[in-house]
TrEMBL record:
Protein's recorded name: Transcriptional regulator BetI
Keywords (A to Z) from UniProt: DNA-binding
Highest taxon above the source species: Bacteria
Taxonomic lineage from the root: Bacteria, Pseudomonadati, Pseudomonadota, Alphaproteobacteria, Rhodobacterales
All residue ranges annotated as the HTH tetR-type domain in the record: 8-68
Keyword GTP-binding: no
Molecular function in Gene Ontology: DNA binding
Source species: Ruegeria atlantica
């Protein structure tokens, strides 16, 4: 197996810089100047690695979706042997930096750009559906006697609490917000235990 090319490595570095800029300035505010400064490269090299503006945004979306999908798969594998709603909640809310907080922020920024780049809708939606499916499968496995629809609702609630909490990271909110979301997710999961 050959070594990754310098071109591939440089493209990843530029995409990483683009992600950091989107977190700070939004998709449209992440200019070539910002990306070049963040990557430590000259502007023409940014275009060389990512192409025109539309190609840049599509490459970023592909990178974000791929990273998000890898995180989803890691979550699924980690909970495969012990599929439990509480373990899911622990993994999401106590990930100790295992998940890159920029992913959710970039994901949200890309969603907000769908009117400009409608081709983003499908890959973003499919990756989120896969995330929900992992959560639903875990909740169903941990509550086999519970109503399937109730399990799906609880799984959606847990994921939504996590995403909302993660989206607030740039605000640097009080830690109580994260704790409240964590305990709300636990309470939500407990509703299934009451029904079985």
């Amino acid at each position: 197996m050959g070594r990754p090319s310098v071109q591939d490595q440089r493209k990843k570095e530029v995409l990483d810089a683009f992600m950091s800029c989107v977190v700070r300035y939004g998709v449209e505010g992440a200019t070539l100047e910002h990306i070049a400064a963040q990557a430590g490269l000259k502007r023409p090299l940014i275009r060389h690695h990512l192409g025109n503006r539309k190609a840049m945004v599509l490459a970023l979306a592909e990178h974000v979706v791929e990273t998000f999908s890898k995180q989803t798969e890691t979550l699924r594998v980690a909970l495969d042997e012990h599929p439990d709603a509480r373990n899911l909640i622990e993994a999401l809310f106590n990930s100790d930096g295992a998940m890159d907080p920029r992913i959710n922020i970039c994901y949200q920024a890309l969603i907000n750009s769908i009117e400009i780049y409608p081709e983003l809708r499908k890959p973003l939606l499919e990756s989120m559906e896969a995330f929900y499916k992992v959560a639903i499968d875990i909740v169903l496995a941990s509550h086999p006697k519970a109503d399937k629809q109730a399990c799906e609702i609880v799984a959606h609630g847990i994921i939504n609490l996590f995403i909302t909490t993660d989206a607030f990271v740039p605000l640097k909110p009080p830690k109580t917000w994260g704790y409240s979301s964590y305990f709300a997710a636990l309470k939500l999961a407990e509703t299934l235990e009451e029904k079985t």
